[in-house]
Amino acid sequence: MTEDSTHAGWSRRRLLQAGSAGALAPALVRRAYGRGEGRPRVDWGSQVGDVRSDSALIWSRTDRDARMQLRWSTRPDLADAVHGPWVHALQDRDHTAKLLLNGLPAGERIYYEIVFTDLADLKTHSEPLRGSFRTAPASAERNVRFLWSGDTAGQGWGINPDFGGMRIYNSMHALQPDFFIHCGDTVYADSPIGESVQLPDGTSWRNLVTPEKSKVAESLDEFRGQFRYNLLDAPLRRFNAEVPMYAQWDDHEVTNNWYWELRRDNDPRYREGSVARLAARAMRAFQEYMPVRQHPLNPERIHDHFSHGPLLDVFRIDLRAWRGPNSDEQPRELSPEFRILGQAQMAWLKQSLRQSTATWKVIASSMPLGLVVYDNWEHARGAEAIALRDGPAAGRELEIAELLTFIRDEKIANVVWLTADVHYTAAHYYDPEKAQYPHFSPFWEFVSGPLNAGTFGPNPLDNTFGPQLIYRKAPEDGRVNLSPLEGMQFFGQVDIDTESRAMTVTLKDLEGETLFTQLLRPEGEMPTT
Fold it and tell me: Which neighbouring-strand residues pair with 205?
């Protein structure tokens, strides 16, 4: 989501300068930083990610050179626990550790326990961390439920103890989902958190603050500190321990609206002008702190495919690693500088979709297809996302057009797009009969977020692919950067029924209240609203 998105002449950057980034010398949270005495600390909890039917990645962190040991069982008391191999948590990776558990039973709840052993004293152990998760099913023996959203701790809205922290994670946890898709902006490395934010009614929003969150991230440790900050939140840690995540990245893991060629030489907040350097450091921190698998041939690769039995395949795509500049140019021929998926990822996605035998194919995208997200909102210039303006497909839209036509020609049914980024929630139906580029089969896109950030919107729809607005909840005109106190934090829920194979998509708010529900029937039937 662009930091400069404006309504009534106010940009996010100006809002932050005027208020939410005001107190940059607060009483800093120091407890979770630096080595403690005694036992190894485990203040950051555990995370489960990239779950499959027979495996899952487990993450944790401690405060010193230590050995992470894990045992797991299908029994809550761990009476017959299997001991996994140990993994070392060393300083070069900020004392984070990841373990890929293989050989897990499909469709079962797995209970696990993590203990760190101090390498300086092998008799000194951490307190145990416990959690559980469900592996993906190998058959259609049970229903599937999962959630998605994006945008955590942005626009100056951090962890507020008076509010109960990031409360939306409690609402999501209560639904007991099989997994969660985080559609990007997992942190806001370019959005400092101040001690307080003055609210329109004269009261204040209070934030926990840390040294790394008091400025924009530039060094590797400052990028790491963005993730450490979020893990100070108790609701998030409880959620992470029991709900497997498929994590994506977008712009704010690095800096607003970034692409490799961008520079920050004229931004006084930055001493490092090279965004390519910032992005490399940010990706290192992301890989260290998020529970994502590392591809054996490309350790920084994010795009991947996850099967949940015959009902569902999830395709996690990456809209950052191969994108060209956010240009005003909109050529009618596709060239590498105007791609957003990139040739290699496009080939992988086509092949994976063609090979999928699942009823539903969900494409998890960090940005929407048909919502206009300008690189420069003040002058309505540059395409930060895919869409830019009404009319025939051009620029980045050509790559998406190629993909949509491929899906139609290969008769790949029941493709649904899920995304976040724009800081409100919406349901869009893409209708080729109302599109400037009509060479595709109709499909749905659902948008939901933020998780704990400012609420903005709505964004204009671009008619290139004929998106029809079915539902939307966003701030009223003239209202921007709404705090979580206003309740306009959003996530989506998806339920797939094993008998009917129908998919039900529900858009929900901060407290888990239902805002909108859409039933989708398989085999390309046009659903009724």
Answer: 197
